Amino acid sequence: MNQHIAFWTKAQMRKQVAVIQGELAPSLVLTNATYLNTALKKWVKANIWILEDRIVYVGEKMPDHRSGTEITDLEGKFVVPGYIEPHCHPFQLYNPQSLSRYALQRGTSVFLADNFMLLFEMNISKALSFMEDVNDLPSNFFWWCRYDAQTELLEEENYFSEKSVRQLLESPYVLQGGELTSWPRVLHGDDTLLHWMLKTKKAGKKIEGHLPGASEKTLTAMTLLGVDCDHEAMTGTEVMDRLNAGLQVSLRYSSIRPDLPKLLRQMKEEGITNYERIFMTTDGSTPAFYEEGVTDKMLQIALEAGLDPVDAYMMVSYNVARYYGLDHLFGMVAAGRVAHLNILDDVTNPLPESVLAKGKWMKRNGKDVSEDKDFDFDWEGHGIRKREITWDLQDEDFQFSGLVGIEMYNSVITRPYNVSINPFSEEINEESDECFLMLIDKEGKWRTNTIVKGFAKNLYGFASSYSNTGDLLIIGKNKKDMALAFERLKEVGGGIVLAERGEIVAEIKLPLAGGMSNLSIEELVVEEKRLTNALRERGYQYEDPIYSLLFFSSTHLPYIRITQRGIYDVKKKGLLFPSIMR
Question: Which residues does the chain have with pLDDT short of 50?
Fold first, then answer.
């Protein structure tokens, strides 16, 4: 098999047929399996033949030739397709490699992933190579085509252009446009974005919306403009509105919007009984949120809410595959499909006891049997390395003049406020919940300075290379501790660093492009919790500080943002103060 796109050569297909004709032995046969037949929407008992990475037969028969065939009896067990995550941001401190290894142990084997980070780290050709080569892992990754940066860039045309959009849409690994955070621009007449959306539709690909709080009128308008799916419903009524507008719906259960239990309850109250146009997504949650599970956790919630297990398992497999035109490869236990299979001890327990990915055991009888070599990935060869910071902060970088600052309303919403402190002092008073805030170019060319209120009350020095664009965020009450945190970040080649009174008190090293750890998810959960606890001890009071860092620059959210171009008023669509060239 071509591991990349799950197409097989003529020679491989002839071998697969030879198994059916009794001329060749399969690699693996699962006997007496009770499997989810998604064509019939029922549980059926059968034997499942696999040759290498492909299911070649599902039925009552056993193969004529079994020399070298591994035969595993699944009497009393249940087999379901590998779970599919339809809306993934695989660069949230973790990386595609570590995420897939962790998620496979819990049954998730296919990802529809955001490539946003790649566009800021490499040219489009290298990004396309990365998006292809990551499929050498046991999981499968498919990708999006972003239309905008969801922030204000100094040189947006370097990242989003007619050429880059065309190249992305030509890739067989790119299955959709979006997510469309810039939908107001389209709705109010931006023909460039609409042109790219039309190109997406002509390429036969989907468009993922981002429509929080959208009215019936707006949902209908965006459907007319080409949006196919939305993951922003926050109530059962909003789910119903999207279904009525003809949209596919992703129900979200994430670290900043754990809405799924409420949504399922309210959907029941709304009388929704058909789940064929519904998925579930964790929407790129941060590592600690995944400690209780990935797709398996959402399945558990759905089953506890009383959903028929057939509906629940189809929501995370066949429904997604069919929507994206991938049901010839995934989402079914049927001949011709990639052998991503989860073996359950009971349909009410979605955490698999055993997992096959591309026909190879990743987990068996509750034990991780994957090999390190299965997850080898050449980061350096793909241009992903430590963040090299070859410049220094200067005294003038710590000038924070300005009357309008940024006030945190929750973990992701910020609003303007009138600064009352002295921004020229070396340290902000401990009684204040204000901190200095700087966004500075990763190459040291420019900076944007302001004051942030409500992020943390007793945070002295904090620096992060994890941000929306990979530029550096530096926050704190004490300018010397801010400089110390920056120096430590520079020393380790990227990360998130907390400094206090001349000492480093917590950090997460992010040696992959300054935004990703090379640790396992399990190790990263420990580090993230330690950092989050340290921030909470210093006054951070919202759901997720990692998302706060990510969204400081995100202009798809209200009301004021710190960007490459300066302090940006989202509502008025203009700069309050420009960035300063260094």
Answer: 1-3
pLDDT tens-digit map of 478-489: 999 999 999 999
> 29-58: string of b/e by CB count within 10 Å (b at 16+)?
bbeebbbbbbeeeeeeebbbbbbbbbbbbb
Query: What distance in Å separates the CA atoms of residue 347 and residue 533, rounded to the nearest whole number?
Result: 37
Kindly give, in sequence order, each residue whose CB lies less than 8 Å from that of residue 366, ignoring residues fewer than 6 positions away: 353, 354
pLDDT at 6: 63
Nearest to 139 by CA among 356, 327, 351, 299: 356
Q: In which residue are the tokens 């399969």 written?
A: 26
- Residue 487 in contact with residue 495, Cβ under 8 Å? no
446 Cβ contact list (under 8 Å, min separation 6): 154, 440, 564, 579, 580, 581, 582
How far apart are alpha carbons 313 and 298 in whole angstroms?
10
Cβ contact 444:397 at 8 Å: no
Nearest CA to 474 among 484, 487, 464, 466? 464
Global confidence as pTM: 0.97
Among 352, 286, 288, which Cα is nearest to 316's? 352
Q: Is 508 helix (H, G, I), strand (E, B) or coil?
A: strand
What is the C-alpha separation between 42 and 407, in angstroms, rounded? 53
Can you say whether residue 425 is alpha, beta or left, with left for phi > 0 and alpha for psi between -120 and 50 degrees? beta
| Each residue's pLDDT tens digit, 272-303 | 999 999 999 999 999 999 999 999 999 999 99
